[in-house]
């Protein structure tokens, strides 16, 4: 019997007020209906925000180490359920099982990390310019936070947003991607089991127009965090700006791997395969551009094509599978449309380029690993995010030209270089305009203890994950406190 997935509002699992439901389908096999999910609207959003607002005073006043203890328990539960959760990620989102398990591990790591931040919500104590006076700053929570997450990391990215929001003392209304509602539900169930009080975490399922938009516009929501498309992120940023509402977004990338003539070629090809075809290219950090020195370009193309042609495409739950499906029909068609654009622009297709409906791929959204060569920097396939298993190869004369091409786009999330020359990698590290820099590693592999995000149209506001400049900068505001114990009026800056 197909499971029914409900909203979680004020500590209760409830149906959407509309009474409607929508299906969550396995992208590897559309016959597999995973669940029927609450199809919510503004009424459900209003109820969730009200619950979060009422829960805020008691939650924010609970000592942060106590909040951390609940997150620690949640992480322990996830450790015990890692295989079950990872299998669910694979079934609902489509990525292969090792990646599904990695998705869960990242959520475990983030939850442990943020649990520890309950004892490190640091401010500053500084000397006052006046005698008998203290001066300090401290972090305080924002209030009610609306969190909107994507489908490609359906447990990891919710953990990036929910756990720092909670440890900082905020309450949350969580709107997950409609493609992966069951994964989101399991994560919230774990927080409930770990003891997070009623109203502190609220989950509202549904679509952007009917749930996301009213959540962003709600006058009782103090801050919004969004990961998704650049188009939607820009719309949300405009709304939040007009409402003077705190906002952070991470929206995409068009990430390069530069391969120099002195690179370890085998290592570079491994990195290019992982970056280009891991998660079927459905990562904001995917390496969709290979920028290769002319001396080794022909050799790289030959070996890269040979290795990519051997990748086994299929259902991610099968052990032999190396690349799964696109998440839905819309993403499938988008990638195929970009492949057509590449052909029309004059790029030469040397591998893949079409969907596959053979064997165990008959009922899913599968696209073959696809490689274009003779790509120029002005082509759309070299400039726009495809979010599919499509890699463009560009040939360059030197490092300066490679960095110029790499930087000459709207995004600046992740970038990598393969070179044995420490001076070349130092120049790349200095001159590459991206938030994440990798040297002799692929564009994939961020760790939770440092901020995650990029430059230009990749993002706006503070960044996800940990470290200075990370998520806690979004989920807290600064309060400065002066205490004068001199017993008489002292006028600062006045003799």
Structural summary, described in words:
Helix 1 (42-61) crosses helix 7 (208-217) and helix 4 (97-117) runs parallel beside helix 5 (156-167). This protein has two domains: 3-251 and 459-481, Aldehyde Dehydrogenase, Chain A, domain 1 (3-Layer(aba) Sandwich); 256-439, Aldehyde Dehydrogenase, Chain A, domain 2 (3-Layer(aba) Sandwich). The model has no long low-confidence stretch (mean pLDDT 97). The chain has 14 helices and 25 strands. Strand 8, helix 5 (156-167) and strand 9 form a beta-alpha-beta unit. The radius of gyration is 24 Å and the shape is globular. It has helices at 42-61, 64-80, 82-93, 97-117, 156-167, 181-193, 208-217, 230-242, 265-277, 294-309, 329-345, 399-407, 422-431, 472-475; strands at 3-5, 7-9, 12-14, 21-26, 29-38, 124-127, 133-141, 144-148, 171-175, 201-203, 223-227, 246-250, 256-259, 289-293, 348-351, 370-373, 390-396, 411-412, 414-418, 436-439, 451-452, 455-456, 459-460, 464-465, 476-484. By secondary structure, the chain is an alpha/beta fold. A seven-stranded mixed beta sheet has the order 15-16-17-14-13-19-20, sandwiched between helices.
Task: Name some characteristics of this structure.
495 residues, alpha/beta, Aldehyde Dehydrogenase, Chain A, domain 1, Aldehyde Dehydrogenase, Chain A, domain 2, seven-stranded mixed beta sheet, six-stranded mixed beta sheet, 38% helix, globular
């Amino acid at each position: 019997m197909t499971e029914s997935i409900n909203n979680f509002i004020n500590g209760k699992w409830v149906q959407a007020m509309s009474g409607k439901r929508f299906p969550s389908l396995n992208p590897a096999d559309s016959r597999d209906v995973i669940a029927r999910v609450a199809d919510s609207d503004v009424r459900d959003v209003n109820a969730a925000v009200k619950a979060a607002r009422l829960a805020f005073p008691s939650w924010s006043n609970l000592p942060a180490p106590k909040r951390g203890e609940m997150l620690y328990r949640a992480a322990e539960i996830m450790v015990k359920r890692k295989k079950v959760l990872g299998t669910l990620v694979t079934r609902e989102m489509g990525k292969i099982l090792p990646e599904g398990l990695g998705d869960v591990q990242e959520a475990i790591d983030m939850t442990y990390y943020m649990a520890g931040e309950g004892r490190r919500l640091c401010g500053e104590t500084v000397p006052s310019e006046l005698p008998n006076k203290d001066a300090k700053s401290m972090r305080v929570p924002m209030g009610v936070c609306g969190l909107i997450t994507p489908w490609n990391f359906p447990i990891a990215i919710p953990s990036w947003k929910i756990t720092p929001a909670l440890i900082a003392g905020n309450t949350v209304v969580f709107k997950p991607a409609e493609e992966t509602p069951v994964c989101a539900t399991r994560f919230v169930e774990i927080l409930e089991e770990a003891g997070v009080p009623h109203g502190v975490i609220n989950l509202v399922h549904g679509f952007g127009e009917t749930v996301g938009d009213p959540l962003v516009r709600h006058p009782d929501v103090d801050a919004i965090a969004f990961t998704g498309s650049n188009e939607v992120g820009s719309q949300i940023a405009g709304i939040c700006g007009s409402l003077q509402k705190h906002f952070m977004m991470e929206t995409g990338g068009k990430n390069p791997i530069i391969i120099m003539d002195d690179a370890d070629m085998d290592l570079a090809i491994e990195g290019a395969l992982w970056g280009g075809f891991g998660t079927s290219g459905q990562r904001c950090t995917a390496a969709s551009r290979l920028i290769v020195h002319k001396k080794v370009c022909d050799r790289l193309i030959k070996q890269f094509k040979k290795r990519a042609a051997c990748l086994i495409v299929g259902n991610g739950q099968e052990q032999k599978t190396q690349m799964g499906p696109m998440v839905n029909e819309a993403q499938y068609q988008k990638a195929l449309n970009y492949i057509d654009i590449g052909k029309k622009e004059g790029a030469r297709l040397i591998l893949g380029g079409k969907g596959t409906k053979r064997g165990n791929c008959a009922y899913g959204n599968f696209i073959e690993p696809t490689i274009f060569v003779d790509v120029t920097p002005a082509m759309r396939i070299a400039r726009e995010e495809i979010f599919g298993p499509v890699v463009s190869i560009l040939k360059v004369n030197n490092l300066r030209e490679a960095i110029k091409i790499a930087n000459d786009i709207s995004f600046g999330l992740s970038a990598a270089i393969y070179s044995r020359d420490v001076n070349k990698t130092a120049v790349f590290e200095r001159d590459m305009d991206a938030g994440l820099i990798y040297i002799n590693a692929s564009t994939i592999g961020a760790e939770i203890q440092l901020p995650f995000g990029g430059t230009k149209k990749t993002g706006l506001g503070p960044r996800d994950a940990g470290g200075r400049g990370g998520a806690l900068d979004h989920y807290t505001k600064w309060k400065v406190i002066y205490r004068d114990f001199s017993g008489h009026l002292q006028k600062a800056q006045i003799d």
